[in-house]
Amino acid sequence: MRRVAIRLPTKPAVLIAARRLAVHPGIGSGDVSNRELVVLGTASQAPTRTRNHNGYFLRWDGEGLLFDPGEGTQRQMVFAGVTASQITRICITHFHGDHCLGLPGVLQRMALDHVPQIVEACYPAENREVFMRLRHAALFRDVLNLAERPVAGGMVLQASSFRMEAQPLSHSVPTFGYRLVEPDGRRMLPEKLAARGVTGPDVGRLQREGFLMAGDGLVTVEQVSEPRRGQRFAFIMDTRLCDAAFLLADQADMLVCESTFADAEAALAREYGHLTAGQAGRIAAESRVRLLVLTHFSQRYDPDDGQRLTAEAGMAFGGDVVMAHDLNRIPVPPRRPSAAR
Ligand SMILES: [Zn+2]
Ligand SMILES: [Zn+2]
User: Fold this and answer.
1) I need a surface site. Which of 31, 94, 106, 126 has the fewest CB within 10 A?
2) 238 CA to middle of ligand 2, Å?
């Protein structure tokens, strides 16, 4: 594991807020978090020698959500140690090539590997014909269990431990950002369970039913647990600043946000429907995000520009900022203390 500076401290306020964040460099790195972002690619429009087209794999407990598989995603998955069978959902923000040209390869690989589970595929409903072209771009033995979820905004899908919502963004073609919301729950407290004589399978029963008889009498789940904040993940790709971006990012533990341009190119960003690094920082700040992951960089920037871009985001945002590099593994921050949000 390597520790990297996440922001260039350029002025006192940023200096005070500057923190260091553990980012796994990728291949062969050590421990595995239950919730982490595996960065498969970070390039907008055109890949470079150091950046593949977009591609993001979110491990979330037993789920694997693949966002925006750009060209080359299948091979980046091999480098990152992500298998086709780990994919449980696919979410596409829009059908520009850097966000979807890898879909045919990934789908074919899922068929080749006989992925048994039903995989839900979310994409802008208006462009279903593009999805169908990509779905059938090549000839292969099609044994996929794909469930299409065309997106028109609002609730997209409901999983056992989270819900996925989408909001329309402001780009040149139909584009949706996504956010994953885990409902608030309760954390069981072992010492209180023990004091009340609740052990073994009764713990699960108490969680399910809310109360049971044990030891000295009635035990309620409130007596032996504390509130636990659900976690949130937001994914915002190609867009101008718009209300939906702030809505999606609201109180996200991790926000993955495009930052195609540096602030000096703000006019260009607006014209082509993109964000600058500073605007990504503003979204994170106003939405009270914890960790901002910058990505989707114009080919005009090389890796040495990373400190500049993170510094621009850091001017607006006092939390953690990290510039994504291909094959990084970035843990979702640990849960907040129960009272915080
Ligand atoms: Zn793009
Ligand atoms: Zn685009």
Assistant:
1) 31
2) 5
d(CA 237, ligand 1 centre) in Å? 7
Query: From ligand 1's centre to the CA of 273, what distance in Å?
Result: 10
In a domain, 339, yes or no: no
- Please give the single-letter amino acid code of residue 202: D
The answer to whether the beta carbons of residues 214 and 278 sit under 8 Å apart is no
Q: Indicate the number of domains in the chain.
A: 2
Could you say which ligand is closest to the alpha carbon of residue 70? 1
Q: Which pTM was predicted? A: 0.87
Question: 28 lies in a domain?
Answer: yes
* pLDDT per residue as tens, the chain (341 positions): 344 343 332 333 332 233 445 566 544 333 445 999 999 999 999 999 999 999 999 999 999 999 999 999 999 999 999 999 999 999 999 999 999 999 999 999 999 999 999 999 999 999 999 999 999 999 999 999 999 999 999 999 999 999 999 999 999 999 999 999 999 988 899 999 999 889 899 898 898 899 998 877 899 999 999 999 999 999 999 999 999 999 999 999 999 999 999 999 999 999 999 999 999 999 999 999 999 999 999 999 987 888 899 999 999 999 999 999 999 999 999 987 665 55
> What separation in Å is there between the alpha carbon of 94 and the centre of ligand 2?
7
Dist. CA 199 → ligand 1 center (Å): 52
Residue 303 lies in a domain: yes
Ligand closest to Cα of 299 equals: 1
CATH classification of the domain holding 56: 3.60.15.10
Residue 144 in domain: yes
> What DSSP character marks residue 251?
T
Q: How far is the CA of 192 from the centre of ligand 2 (A)?
A: 52
DSSP-assigned letters across all residues of 148-207: EEEE-SEEEEE-SS-EEEEEE--SSS--EEEEEEPPPEEEE-HHHHHHTT--THHHHHHH
Q: Relative to the alpha carbon of 261, which ligand is closest?
A: 1
As annotated, the active-site residues are 98
Q: How many Cβ atoms are within 10 Å of 245's Cβ, its own excluded?
A: 26
Task: State how far the Cα of 312 lies from the Cα of 279, in Å rounded to an integer.
Answer: 9
Same-domain status, 61 and 195: no
